[in-house]
Amino acid sequence: MGQGKKDIRRKMISMREGMDEGEAMRRSEEIKRKVLELQEVRDARVIMLYASKGKEVRTDELISELLGMGKRVVLPKTEVEGRGITPVEISDPEKDLIPGNYGIREPRDCARRVNPEEIDLVIVPGIAFDRNGNRLGRGAGYYDRFLSMIKGKVRIAALAYSFQIVERVPSSDSDVPVDIVITEEGAYRTG
Would you give the end-to-end CA distance of the chain in angstroms? Predict the structure, then answer.
């Protein structure tokens, strides 16, 4: 019997948050470089990302670089009541993002809401992944509900440190796997 989600989540968060700040920055920079090399990123016009928290793979510079390349960048605004995500376009992370639910920065308001069908690539966070693209998230299910609506229509990628790749992430029918995982060691396609 493999490890359960709670055990994997606890271990991975401990490893991630226990990382030296400089190490997190160095690895994040390398991951950013690999993201920008991806054909899926070069081809995409509208990319949905997330604002990193704690020692998650840093996304601030990636967001800025994508905006500088003329990409439309969308971030999730969480709707706590329905446990859903509303994709909202931003143009300036400094002005457009405020601390939201769970202490995660998110768009200030929904004025620039984006139809999920306009999104070409979704880049999600996660706590652990396996080689089949199974993803262990933060546990609230926001992303799985959102991804289930766009599965098969949009490429789904994830950012992770190499130690976040585990042998097996327990999954259920409601979990949506990712198509690509990008670590500091490279990008691999799943499935």
Answer: 23
Residue 168's domain is classified under what CATH number?
3.40.50.10420
Phi, psi of 142, rounded to the nearest 5 degrees: -55, -50
- Kindly report, residue by residue over 16-29, the tens digit of the pLDDT: 999 999 999 999 99
Residues 6+ apart with CB under 8 A from 4: 170
Whether pTM exceeds 0.85: yes
Domain count, the chain: 1
Host domain of residue 56: 5-189
Give the strand pairing for 105-107 and 186-189: unpaired
